[in-house]
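QA checklist item 7 of 12: single-chain prediction sanity check.
[x] sequence parsed
[x] length recorded as 273
[x] structure emitted
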Amino acid sequence: MVLENDEWKEGNNDGASPLLDALPGVMLKTGFLKTGLLKTGLLKIGLLEVAVSLLCLLGASVTSAEDDQQRAQQGAQPSTQYEAGKHYVLLDIPVRMRDPNLVEVTEYFAYSCAHCYTFEPLINQWKYDLPEGVIFNRTPAIWSSLLEFFAQTYYTAETLGVLEVIHTPLFQALHIERRNLNNPEAMAEFFSEYGVDTEDFMKAFNSFGVKASRQQADARGRAYRASGTPAIIVNGKYRIDGSMAGSNAAMLEVAEVLIQRELEQRQNQYIAP
């Protein structure tokens, strides 16, 4: 706020000014009255200049606070500018989905993988917050005879209807308790601790359906072309791993953006004539 000299003179004919009237209140709020500055001849050296300076100072403080708040809000917003080849891989040949009407999210994992074990609590909670129209499943990695055995164990648990009961405890048994569960007999004993009869385990483990599921998982894993676990596959098109996303937790952020992209594309297909 700037007053020309003529305006100041006209407003001062009777010794009063709206700006001067408001000054004591402003000074009181800013602590000037407490300093005794009004008693040191301040009014004699140009009360108008001081008033204008105070008002400018107060205005600058408000503007600075607003700028800080805006910068904080911008800094809190996650970046959605993820690029293929930098943050995720666009698969050359998409993997066929089980239900083309839904967006499918697959965790590619291995029970023997320590990173998968630490990632499990994150993705296990995350999957419950997926939007409508999105389904979650897992595919075990098969790169060795041991992983083949664990994959067959995974589909045995699924066949017996105890997968969600067994999944996390099996991770813990391998990585925390360091149990040797590398053969069907030992694994059958482990399953029995969760109410599964050992004979039922062996029957399911050796069944045609479980072995077929294991073979299908092997084929999907080859199509994913992943060199490590854990990884996330979104709708059979995109592969996300921790090294590209920045961390295992960041994989979930990238996945959310790609999931939303797939949902929007699906919605546009339904709207298009």
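[x] summary fact logged: The longest strand covers residues 103-109.
[ ] second reviewer sign-off
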